[in-house]
Amino acid sequence: MLVLVVNAGSSSLKSQLIETDGKVVSMKCLAEKVGTDEACMNISFAPDFQKVRYNAVGMTVAQCLGKLLDVMVDDPESPISGLSQIDAVGNRIVAGGEYFTKASLIDADARAKLSLCEELAPLHNPAADACIDMLMELLPGTPQVAVFDTAFHATMPPKAYMYPLPMRYYEEYHIRRYGAHGTSHRYAAQQAANLLGRPLRDLGLITCHLGNGGSITAVNHGKSIDTSMGFTPLEGLMMGTRSGSIDPAIITYIMRREGKTFDEMDEILNRESGILGISGTSSDMRDVLEAASKGDERAELAIDMYVYRVQKAIGGYYAAMTRTDAVVMTAGIGENSADLRERIFEGLAHMGMILDKERNQFEGAVGANRIISIDDSPIRICVVTTDEEMRIARETDNLVSQMGD
Ligand code: ADP
User: FRET label pair with 59: which of 129, 166, 317, 334, CA 20 to 30 Å apart?
Assistant: First the structure.
């Protein structure tokens, strides 16, 4: 089945065309820094995957997808010449609330429920919904599937997903922890089990998805038992532009002091905080690392805070589990930044997570799944390349194939 995978992030669009029968990828697209004046898209086709770069300044995530579809139809290198050749679309959706606990076919009812989930992930869900709407128009009759980041966390026990608020907020508004990045955490856990050569059901893992957004999950015997993102993807770690966890009283304090509206406060916490808010330079870790290397003190503080919060979260999940066999690093920062990994694990050696600095730095291994702890580290440290797109394609194939039965 030829599946177009659409992964609309907060500031990015990742898309792949995947033939699921042979797990063959024939198109890759990455739009980055969308919404900034450095926005650009790289599109490439099999077999060489020679990237062609397109300017994406002034475009929304959905408009980037529109541009990608045009290129896929027009480019002679493209494996398709018409959109009707696409059998199904798999959409990554960050928040499914309590409406969706597994991947779902997008019919009118599901589309209406998706709109209700938008406020749970105000940076991501609206971008994904805009992509779905555009595809419904351009590819009428092609089944679209929603694969949810929250689904993997449906196994969390009440003590992890409940907030200590008056009970009626859970009962009336379903305010609880849903988590996010579930597809990535599930995949990272499985890849780590493969690396360790042991069944996932026997392992205790702490999976760290450190990208533009970031979350950490305690995966006990293959099941998510707790995760750092909460009711929305705003909770937990410090992120590119999101504050992560802060004293909730700060919010009402600022609103009173400055007469901020709810929307303005949402904007501050979701788009103006985190690494961007502290560094004042950028939300992108590469830029901030570079600024810090030139002596920028705010950039250095942002990195220090980021590292410290990741360390504390890993420590928290170590305590939440009955055993910890490995810590797994994935996503943009987790996979690519040897420097940040070194800083994070420098502080965690006393818990038995002992990094092998050479293995960590080994450039040739970038992009490959590997173990980067010393041989007798009580807890292993793994780096795995997240492959959310392949998982989304396979889940889409499963669901669409069942439709035909
Ligand atoms: P998203 O959450 O948008 O999917 P990604 O997983 O692509 O994000 O991660 C993006 C983040 O990864 C950015 O902050 C980027 O700077 C960071 N990143 C990517 N490569 C590197 C690198 N080599 N060193 C440090 N940070 C990196």
Answer: 334
| Catalytic one of 149, 226, 284, 397 | 149
Q: Residue whose CA is closest, atom 27 of ligand 1?
A: 333
> Ligand 1 center to residue 212 CA distance, Å?
6
Q: In testing the pocket of ligand 1, which one of 239, 282, 285, 310 has its CB within 8 Å of the most ligand atoms?
A: 285
- Residue 47 preceded by cis peptide, ω within 30: yes
Q: What is the position in ligand 1's atom list of the atom closest to the CA of 240?
A: 14
pTM: 0.86
Judge whether 391 and 183 are in contact, CB under 8 Å: yes
Ligand 1 atom closest to Cα of residue 289: 25
Q: Which residues line ligand 1 (CB under 6 A)?
A: 9-12, 211-213, 240, 284-286, 289, 331-333, 336-337
CA of 12 to the centre of ligand 1 (A): 11
Tens place of pLDDT per residue across the chain (405 aa): 999 999 998 789 999 999 999 889 999 999 999 998 999 999 999 999 999 999 999 999 999 999 999 999 999 999 999 999 999 999 999 889 889 989 999 999 999 999 999 988 887 899 999 999 999 999 999 999 999 999 999 999 999 999 999 999 999 999 999 999 998 999 999 999 999 999 999 999 999 999 999 999 999 999 999 999 999 989 999 999 999 999 999 999 999 999 999 999 999 999 999 999 999 999 999 999 999 999 999 999 999 999 999 999 999 999 999 999 999 999 999 999 999 999 999 999 999 999 999 999 976 555 689 999 999 999 999 999 988 899 899 999 999 999 866
Tell me how many degrees the CA angle 51-57-62 measures, rounded to the nearest 5: 80
Q: Is 133 a catalytic residue?
A: no
